[in-house]
Amino acid sequence: MRRTFVYFILGFVFLVMQTTLLAAMLPLHFKPDLLLILVVYLGLNEGYVRGGALSYILGCLQDVFAAGYPGLHGLALLCTFLAVRGAAARLNTESSTLLLLLVSAGTLLQAALLLFALGFFAEAGALWVIILIGILPQVLLNLLAASLLLKAAAWLQRRFAPRFKLPGLPRAGRHYGS
Amino acid sequence: MLELLRKYRTPLLAGCLILAALLLYSARLRQRETTNAFERTALGLTAPVQGGVDIVADGVAGAWSAFLGIFGNSPEVLRLSAENRRLRSELAQLTELRLENERLSRLLAFREEIASQAVPARVIAEDASSWFRTVLIDRGRQDGVREGMPVVVAEGVVGRVIKSAASESRVLLATDASSAIAGLVQRTRARGICRGQGTLLSFDFAMHWEEIEEGDLIVTSGTGGVFPKGLTVGTVSRVSPGGFGLFKTVEVTPSVDFYRLEEVLVLLKEHR
pTM to 2 decimals? Predict the structure, then answer.
């Protein structure tokens, strides 16, 4: 329960950062999708029920601050989580590079899901043009953000809680051969 | 049967979750023009934090600049550097105040010009996604702001309110892919729909025989039921004949700089 709460708070902080600090710092409306990175992390470390519920709730929270379609990001993040969770069972999750790879794949999958959900159920307009133009910078931005977050999390753990193990985090450390 | 269910428990669970999420999304699309309790609560809880982070970000930027200026050698250099930093900081603050004053004066003059009840608002946050174009403003239902109200600046149309909580609202910008504004070419009165393309706008449904040239001003036609007539939308930046089709392909550069949106006006009365 405590872990769920921590994930939720982290998601909330990420969302605030995305809408304020990062939006002000980066040009052309681009901002890294920190919630997507968190969901990919959940997919690698949490079970279907807890991770699925958290991904959906975080997605619904993102919907309050993104686009105008309630449940759109909830659906997209839930599908992304399930895809990562399904793939994680067949992959070597001990590698930190895998998280970066999955973040790239997750960005593409989320874009495709948004296009599907808006194209079939609502009015997508020229969204595909916006996504097509911006998908490559977005993937690179998400990769950079994921890489920085991994390094920051590993450093924080080593510095402040060396005995406390965060799920999945040790693989990001230098001592684990990543 | 039970054995089969047990064997495929995980894919079935995943399928059910996706189906439920899809149904919820589909059902809620009908109420997308209203703000539900979850959205109101989330907006109400987050907006003060976002406003605070906005102020803190300014402070952090200032402190960072001051930190970078510390690297001096002699006490005299340090003293002069400190004084220089202080004066620069004061100058920056004064410049910021002057620019804000200019912006607000323009907005005030525009407010008197449109002769309509309007509420000034500050932009406190942007859209959480890179694909959509919305902003959060610090005015809500308490100030009379409701869904569907037009949002403008002195330069022209900004967008319309799509969600409104007690003291904050979300505005769909004209450049968002789902935005559509009824407009007309000021010079020739040719009608069309301005749709968002992310950064630019397209002027759709303009008949191929209509006379439209680069540099023509596009204004709101007032027929969409949201925006009053005559507000500037943008300038025609490219015109293509559109082949054998019925319509011309017209690209419009918005008159508003959406990257530097700070203060806006919400028009409280509907104009038709």
Answer: 0.74
Any CB–CB contact under 8 A between A61 and chain B?
A: yes
Q: Which domains does chain B have, with CATH numbers?
A: 39-174+261-267 (2.40.10.340), 180-255 (2.40.10.350)
Residue A92 in tokens: 């070597």
Q: Do A70 and B32 touch (CB under 8 A)?
A: yes
Of A30, A48, A69, the CB nearest to B29: A69
CB distance A129 to B175 below 8 Å: no
* pLDDT per residue as tens digits for the range B163-175: 888 888 889 998 8
Q: What angle do CA A117, A121, A125 make, to 5 degrees?
A: 80
Pick the residue of B8, B9, B24, B25 with the most A CBs within 10 A to test the interface with A by mutation.
Answer: B25
ipTM over 0.85: no
DSSP, collapsed to helix, strand or coil, labels residue A34 as helix
Answer whether B218's CB lies under 8 Å from B236's CB. Answer: yes
Sign of the Cα torsion B196, B33, B51, A40 reads negative
